[in-house]
């Protein structure tokens, strides 16, 4: 294989190189351009979620997609002046409730009983959490640097986890959910996310250089939890991947599962101090 890479890893690299400039360009442009990126990604994620969890009702699929895109569009329209920390905190709470109250086993039980339409609502919350958080985070600075850092911290977790896991191996992290993931992979991902975060802080002036490595490492942990959550859903549904849209990665959910968990946590971490200052 080219450059000594395995076929799967080579596909991953090519996919990343092809998609990265487009994604970063739309992040930088912000506003409705960024909404286009989120709208396309959100629609694809809802479709994959519904396929994964047995939602066959077209009406349920359309409603879930429309809800997510409408909320994301509303947040984009409001902009940074009106989309306050209170707004995002309330939205995150409202969306997280239906998602975390439904275990993968419950989703699978509905699919088996052919009553999976309710799973679309969980998917709307799952995807909506990420899209609303990313929209709000993009509004927090002029050039999208917070969103760029979020992306790179999550990607660093994936890359560091992949190479540390394959190179070091060792005890499994969660063998019942994802047999290939190891504690070495988690630590490797945390280290690389910390290094990347420090580099972004020093080069672009984002955050405190003393705190950003710690923040990056914590984002890596949350991203790993997001990966494990999707693995649990796929295992409950007896599926290997969420789809086959991206060569080497499977579906789009397989690529952004860590981001779906990380973005709301970062938004919440930024919003809570703002709430405190507002109340004070």
From the N-terminal CA to the C-terminal CA, the straight-line distance is: 60 Å
What's the Cα radius of gyration? 18 Å
| Order of strands in the sheet with most strands | 1-2
- Report the count of strand segments: 2
The dominant shape is globular
SSE pattern, N- to C-terminal: HHHHHHHEEHHH
Mean model confidence by pLDDT: 85
As a percent range, the share of strand residues is under 5%
Helix content: over 70%
- Main sheet makeup: 2 strands, antiparallel
Low-pLDDT residue spans: 1-5
Quickly count the helices.
10
Which class do the helix and strand fractions yield? Answer: mainly alpha
Question: How would you describe this structure to a colleague?
Answer:
- The chain has 280 residues and is mainly α.
- 77% of the residues lie in helices and 3% in strands.
- It is built from 10 helices and 2 strands; from the N terminus they run H-H-H-H-H-H-H-E-E-H-H-H.
- A two-stranded antiparallel ribbon has the order 1-2.
- Helix 2 (31-52) runs antiparallel to helix 3.
- The longest helix is centred in the C-terminal third of the chain and has 28 residues, at 252-279.
- The radius of gyration is 18 Å and the shape is globular.
